[in-house]
């Protein structure tokens, strides 16, 4: 590996540190360079990629969020006379207020466990992405996504489920992401084959 490339990577890390504010990030979770995370919780072994913004979200364990995503954010009162924040109590880039009408712009985004969100995805505030779901790159998600569903497009729609209904129900019952690390390691060798994984879990329960 060339020295110039290594220096470039070091400088990029140094000057593009993530900004994390009023958030609870589990110590094994990771946030990559240039990302902004505000009022968000993130469980173990989840990560947020480069230059992604996450505002007011709850993120489960083992979830993968790629680069250049925008998750959550403020809304505007579209049923008022004006959508401008100068008429309400929200804080923003415009400091001048012509009125102080009460308005709450933020709704929490709920992202489950073992979710994969591709690059350049936009997720509307208030949306729930259930356990095991996959969101294809470039998608615009404005509705709730069910467990183990694959969604893509603008606006995003369901493409298919990752597994058949029986497998989905079994995985929903197992909830392996809640296990301690010792138990996860015990079954990790079977993670590439859902049927083999479920078979070993069932045998242990007998």
What does the model show?
The protein has 206 residues and is α/β, with parallel strands linked by helices. It contains 4 helices and 16 strands. The protein has helices spanning 3-15, 165-174, 181-187, 194-205; strands at 19-21, 24-25, 30-31, 36-42, 47-48, 53-59, 64-65, 70-72, 109-111, 116-117, 122-123, 128-129, 134-135, 140-141, 149-153, 156-161. The strands form 2 sheets. Strands 1, 2, 4, 6, 8, 9, 11, 12 and 14 form a 9-stranded parallel β-sheet that branches. A 7-stranded mixed β-sheet has the order 3-5-7-10-13-15-16, with no helix packed on it. The longest helix is centred in the first third of the chain and has 13 residues, at 3-15.
Q: What brief labels describe this structure?
A:
seven-stranded mixed beta sheet, elongated, nine-stranded parallel beta sheet, 2 domains, UDP N-Acetylglucosamine Acyltransferase, domain 1, 206 residues, 16 strands, alpha/beta
Helix and strand element order: HEEEEEEEEEEEEEEEEHHH
Fold-level CATH name of the largest domain:
UDP N-Acetylglucosamine Acyltransferase, domain 1
Separation of termini?
A: 52 Å
Classify the oligomer. single chain
| Outline | elongated
Please bin the fraction of helical residues.
Answer: 10-25%
Helix/strand structural class: alpha/beta
